[in-house]
Amino acid sequence: MRTRLNLKILFLILILPFAAFACQQDEIEEPETPTMSHRIPSEGNSWFLTNVGGNKLQTADYNGFNWSYKTSVLRTFFRVEAAGEIHIGITGKVSEGSSTLQATFLNETKEIELNSTTNSLVFVGSYTVPSPGYYYLDLQGVDKVGAQFASIESVTLGGAACKSGVHFSNEDYFYWGRRGPSVHLGYQKPTEASDVVWFYNEITVPKDNDVIGSYYMANGFGQGYFGMQVNSSSERRVLFSVWSPYSTDDPSTIPEDQRVQLIAKGANTTTNDFGNEGSGGQSYMQFNWKAENTYKFLLKGEPSGENTTDYSAWFFDAEQEEWLFVATWRRPKISTYLTSLYSFLENFDTKTGPIERRAYYNNQWIYDTNGTWHEVTEAKFTADATAHDKARLDYAGGYISGDNGFYLKNCGFFNETSEVDTYHERPVLGVAPSIDFDTLPVE
Fold first, then answer.
1. Do the Cβ atoms of 75 and 62 come closer than 8 Å?
2. Is residue 122 part of a domain?
3. Considering Cα of 93, then 179, then 232, then 53, what sign does the dihedral take?
4. Domain contains 336
5. Are residues 222 and 312 in the same domain?
6. Per-residue confidence (pLDDT) for residue 31, from 0 to 100
7. Pairwise CA distance, residues 333 & 258, whole Å
8. DSSP single-letter state for residue 411
9. What is the mean pLDDT of the chain?
10. Half-sphere exposure of 227 (CA within 13 A, CB side)
11. DSSP per residue, 277-313
């Protein structure tokens, strides 16, 4: 008995230190959360996506606790300016119990758990990004106790890939950043032209680039704009608007003597006031224009007496091969011909901010007070404050070789970024528009 007892004591003396050492080793090797240097707020940088990988991506805004479907993928975008190691975490909470989420980055997927009812950091993992550019983290619900999977306050980042800069939309750009950057072409008037009476332009939207929320503006001028939109899955418009000289976002406050006056409109044109981006008169036709077709836009502007100017717009129906009259608006407090001619591409629907769109702008001409057509072949590429402040860098434009003329491209978090305030020239086409001004419809 004593021998067995001594052996047992000896065994404990020899083994216990190793067991203790093994426990200490486990504690030492347990990974710690790396230091996070950037917080990417979900409010300005995340969208719900469905049909990911399918033919038609569906998107929706993300607003806190509204995540109950396993089919919804919460995608958060950010851009890094260096290759290298990146640490990723999420800060979020559950309403009750716990939730299991599937996190995917660079095609690597793992499950994480949230079990706090206050915002807490959960480490996702460390990865290596191969180059500077846009990346995204996907979160998808696996299991939950409460009605919602989670509320994700932000994605957090750290590591060497972040040291050269991380671009995302902060609180100053939660709305505009979700819409994405707007891009413009400022057309350069030929020096030999006199005052501009007529402005002609063409737009072609490539296949699958007719995204909801897009405004492909063709004929912009110093006092308004004219182009075509995708307003919903079932409605498209040709839109022509003229600003009032009175500066306000509320059209009801415009004094009577500074209101834009409707002179005439087409049979299928709807007219009303507009606000929120300046105020004035708006006119539009519901028209089911189609991607891949080329559409023509014609604008006229000339003084109409007593310090007023009339602006008129026509749209060419490519299928029926006829000009359609949109409207004529009279703007007070100004006597001018057309000035500051430009085009733009913008997204006005925050839900579709992560979807890329592009348009081609070609064959620009002006007709002057001397009765002469002049081809416009040079344009200046510019972008809005969202681009200038680097809230989003997915914007491009100018001219690329081919037959499509100038182009504008935005949204979708692509990695191409064109230099702003640069001049571009397209090839001379040499064939002026064949338009009989006297036979254009005016009703």
1. no
2. yes
3. negative
4. yes
5. yes
6. 55
7. 7
8. -
9. 91
10. 25
11. SS-EEEEEEE----TT-EEEEEEEEEE-SSSEEEEEE
Same domain, 68 and 116: yes
| Dist CA 433 CA 349 (whole Å) | 34
Quick one: how many helices (H) and strands (E) in the chain? 4, 29
User: Which residue in 169, 70, 78 sits closest to 129, CA to CA?
Assistant: 78
**In this structure, what CATH number is given to the domain that contains residue 96?**
2.60.120.260
Q: Give the tens place of pLDDT for each residue, 323-337.
A: 999 999 999 999 999
- Do 414 and 377 fall into the same domain? yes
Inside any domain, residue 131: yes
Last residue within a domain, chosen from 136, 168, 200: 168
Question: Which residue, of 125, 140, 168, is where some domain finishes?
Answer: 168
pLDDT of residue 24: 40
Q: What are the tokens at 387?
A: 């681009």
**Pick from 269, 355, 253, 272: which is nearest to 315 by CA?**
269
| Side chain identity, residue 313 | A
d(CA 179, CA 45): 10
Instruction: Say if residue 257 is in the same domain as residue 383.
Output: yes
pLDDT digits 0-9 by tens, 52-81: 765 666 788 887 778 999 999 999 999 999
Distance, CA of 56 to CA of 355 (rounded, Å)? 10
What domain count does the chain have? 2
CA angle 248, 254, 260 (to 5 degrees): 105
Unique residue bearing structure tokens 């994700």: 152
| Chain centroid, CA 359 distance in Å | 14
Residue with tokens 């959960």: 122
Query: Quick check: is 9 in a domain?
Result: no
Assigned token pair, 424: 């571009």
Structural domain harbouring 276: 179-439
Q: What is the pTM of this model?
A: 0.90
DSSP string of 342-400, one letter each residue: EEEEEE--GGGTTS-EEEEEEEEEEEETTS-EEEE-EEEEEE-HHHHTTS---EEEEE-
For residues 239 and 228, is the Cβ–Cβ distance under 8 A? yes
